[in-house]
Amino acid sequence: MDRSEKIGLGVALVGHVVLFGLLSVGFLDAPEPPKIQQQPIDVSLVPDVALEATAPQSTEAPAQSIAPDEGAPEDAAPPAPQEAEPEPKPDPVPPAPQPKPAPPKPAPKPQPAPEPAPKPQPKPKPAPPKPAAKPAPVAKPVVKPQPKPTKAPPTKSAPAKAAPAKAAPTKSAAKPSAAPAKTSATSGKTASASSAKPAKPSATKGSGSTAEAKTSRPRGSRLGDNFLKGLSADPSPSKSEAPKAAKLGAQAAANIGSAILRQVQPCANRQVTPGPGAERIRVTINLKLNRDGTLKSRPTISGHAGVDDDNRRYVDRVDDLAIATFVGCSPLRGLPDDLYDVQNGWSNFSLRYKLPG
Amino acid sequence: MNPVLTMDSATLSPIHLFLQADWVVKGVMIGLLLASIWTWALIVAFWRRIGKTRKGMTRFERDFWKAEDIDVFYKAEGESELPSARVFAAGVTEWRRSTAGGTIDKSGTRERLATTMGAAVAGEIDKLSDRLNVLATVGSVAPFVGLFGTVWGIMRSFTSIAAAQNTSLAVVAPGIAEALFATAIGLFAAIPAVIAYNRFSHGINRIEASLNRFADGFHTTLSRQLDGSR
């Protein structure tokens, strides 16, 4: 090592020491990153989560169908017979009346429609006069209101009427040999219909009795011709005085959920992520709350989502962290009191939670 | 400037990076640091040596061609350490030996003169270029050594990731930074070494060429003397 090498070694040593000394005292440090100015942003938080009815307002009652008022209802029974006599007589009356004037009387049948038998009366009377002429022309044995006519003459109103219906079969059988079943059916029907609604007669189309009935019947009810269209005559049955049950709707639930998450955020931020991928695990946590916002019991985990092979081993840890988060910030404030114990209320509230990050 | 040694991990403090490194990386860093020091020592030495040599050779040749009498000049400059002087001394010595006897073999003398002075030139160049190979070695190997340290350090960082089961940058970054520091030192040593090697080998080539020219010129002079003396 000659002199120049010794000099060189000395120079190199000094140079390195100086260089590393400068680096050590931060001579070449990267400049401090400029401080980021945080511009304040106006944030307005909605303080209360309001109770919202999630059901539609009560619906309007369907329109009623009201027939034109043709006059005040009247008792048809007494007058009917007399008036009816002339007109109705035609077809219906004739067949039945004659054969069974007296015999049918026995009105023991159950049918007892309360109705004041309007039909019976009309028929009975007409029967005697025209029966003879029309019987033949009228094809229908069914139509036979025979039973009624029979009754009418002897007794009078409702009770009597019921009986005739029953009796009819027997008579018919004896007389024209028409289908007894049918007759009875028809007669029964008419009876029941009439009993249900005084106005009905007009609707029934069965026999010639309709025509007569109309003339003699009371009118002006609320029922029109199309009363069977499914509309009820009851006045606005859909109106209910009872208050609608409050229900925690989806939107209110979401509001409460985010209100809760907002309040536990400080505790959530304190949790340390156990490992990569753990923040993808979303646990469904169930909170049982008192009305004052405290926990009634320790939160429970009811489900997981987002678990894959990478983060499966962190599931238990994430559960613990989630529970610790909610326990740590447990008195939850500002939850709407009116939604506490309603259906799906927040007394028992489930929400999804995941670790921050 | 802050006069206190900054030891937090966010700075580029070489001492901090060195202290927190793995021992393998530490060894690599120390070796590379020594190589860098040695490289710079050689650079300084070569700089001085080559510069002095070329200056001296220029002066010597100027004096030589101005000299009236070679014997006188030899007495004055024959003991110099300059390569030109060595070549000149070798030529003069051989000339004196060859012309000492009664009969002179002219062609044999010329050959001997050429061989002797050629050997002297080669010897001087050898001496000058001594340790230039160190620069070449450092220049080519230091990056790989530094890379080895980096790879080792990064492997260690990954194992620490696996151990901590945490990939946050705070866990990974220091290890990678200290590992990369090894490569930085390797490049720090290698770049000057490569530049210096190229520069100095070029300088030595020029010295060799000028020595050869001088030797040829002196040989021509002696050869003419050989003819003229007869």
UniProtKB/TrEMBL annotation, chain A:
It comes from the Bacteria. SUPFAM superfamilies: TolA/TonB C-terminal domain (SSF74653). Residues 52-246 are annotated as: Disordered. The chain crosses the membrane at residues 7-28. The keyword Kinase does not apply. Keywords: Cell cycle, Cell division, Membrane, Transmembrane, Transmembrane helix. Residues 91-134 have a biased composition (Pro residues). One of its GO terms (biological process) is cell division. The keyword Cell wall biogenesis/degradation does not apply. Residues 153-205 have a biased composition (Low complexity). This is Cell division and transport-associated protein TolA.
From TrEMBL, chain B:
It comes from the Bacteria. The keyword Membrane applies. Its main location: membrane. InterPro entries: ExbB/TolQ_transport, MotA_ExbB_proton_chnl, Tol-Pal_TolQ. This is Protein TolQ. NCBIfam families: tolQ. It is found in: Cell membrane; Membrane. The keyword Cell cycle applies. GO terms for biological process: bacteriocin transport; cell division; protein import. The chain crosses the membrane at residues 23-47, 134-155, 175-197. It is a multi-pass membrane protein. One of its GO terms (cellular component) is plasma membrane. It holds the Pfam family MotA_ExbB. Keywords: Cell cycle, Cell division, Cell inner membrane, Cell membrane, Membrane, Protein transport, Transmembrane, Transmembrane helix, Transport. Belongs to the exbB/tolQ family.
